[in-house]
Amino acid sequence: MTTVGDIRRLLDQMAPFDSCESFDNVGILIGGEDLPVSRCLVTLDVTRETVEEAEQKGCEMILSHHPVIFHPMKRIPFDSVQGMLLAKGIAVLSAHTNFDKALGGLNESLSRLLRLENFTPLPEDGCAATALLPGGPMMMDDVVNLVAEALQLQGLRFYDAGKPVRQVVLCCGGGGSYVHEAIRLGADLVISGDFKHDQVIDAMNAGISCIDAGHFETERHFVPLCSEMLAEKCPDVQFVMSEQVRPAFVYRVFDHR
Fold first, then answer.
1. d(CA 135, CA 138)
2. What is the pLDDT of residues 118-150, one digit of tens each?
3. For residue 194, what are the CA distances in angstroms to 68, 94, 124, 177, 216?
4. Is this structure's pTM higher than 0.85?
């Protein structure tokens, strides 16, 4: 029988846990290595809905991208997500920035979805990479349409520096800070899922375009990607893709000008 520890070791081979960023919290965050697993729910985030889904579907374990425990906790109420997991005996394994930067991992997979070329992880920080837009320089309207179609977006935010773009700095999830790396590299565009106001202002002042495609939207492919990778290596476990993976935000457009 496969255990939580076996699945952790498989993931460690694909995306070494010790490669995660210093701020991160990855690995087995609820439960222990010896718990037998026949069904594993794969999700982006651990929510009340995914805990209930795991119980209903007979999953002994949840595999998530975002850590179920990220900040230090001083107490665990029974009705919290962590308390529910403990009460139900459901283990949680989280693979976050180690999976972002892994070979064939989340950031590289995002690059493939966007049909980018020459994907090259940044040597100083593999969570981000440089890449080229397909087929030569493009105007921002065309790039925005490419990203929206590839990721099936409801909407996105962008800043157009008003010039053709070719070289991209790419980071799935929250990568607005890589604006400064893009400035250093002389890139034309940053594509990520979270930008702070000051980061976009720095990009504007440097003449660099930005696309904020959404944190959830640039990482939701974790679920099919990780499920397929593990299913090949662990055929006696059924990896169930969560039906509760959805963005917290919805978009509403107004015509106030």
1. 8
2. 999 998 888 999 999 998 899 999 999 999 999
3. 20, 21, 20, 9, 10
4. yes
